Amino acid sequence: EVVETGPADAARLAGLAQALDHFRGKIDQIPPMYSALKHEGERLYRLARQGKEVVRPARPVTIHELTLIEQAGATAILRIRCSKGTYVRT
């Protein structure tokens, strides 16, 4: 859900850097529908392609490092070091 759009200024960038703090450490992550995980023997991505969505249990993952490297316009470059099984969208 997009709650606001606008130009990125220093205050907004500081806010982005602070928001990243929320995602560091051990977190529970709900796997995306477009993943190879199975639900009742069927791959989630196959169900997603059929337009179906199922409840997926959250899985524990660890974000060891999450650093804002650079930001230009609507693009941000991040350094992410995470545990296996972590999903990151680009």
Write a structural description.
The chain has 90 residues and is an alpha+beta fold. It has one domain (10-82). Helix content is 20%, strand content 34%. It has 2 helices and 5 strands. It has helices at 10-21, 44-49; strands at residues 25-29, 38-39, 42-43, 59-72, 75-82. A 3-stranded antiparallel β-sheet has the order 1-4-5. It has a two-stranded antiparallel ribbon with strand order 2-3. The protein is globular and about 50 Å long. The model has no long low-confidence stretch (mean pLDDT 88).
User: Spans of 5+ residues with little confidence (pLDDT < 50)?
Assistant: none
Largest sheet strand order = 1-4-5
Strand content: 25-35%
Any idea what the radius of gyration is?
Answer: 16 Å
Based on CA inertia axes, which overall geometry fits? globular
In whole angstroms, the N-to-C terminal distance is 16 Å
How many helices does DSSP assign? Answer: 2
Helix/strand-derived category reads alpha+beta
pLDDT averaged over residues: 88
Largest sheet: 3 strands, antiparallel
Helix content: 10-25%
The total count of strands amounts to 5
Based on the model shown, name its key terms.
single chain; 90 residues; alpha+beta; three-stranded antiparallel beta sheet; two-stranded antiparallel ribbon; 2 helices; 20% helix; globular
Layout of strands and helices, then pairs:
Layout: H1 10-21, E1 25-29, E2 38-39, E3 42-43, H2 44-49, E4 59-72, E5 75-82
Antiparallel strand pairs: 1-4, 2-3, 4-5
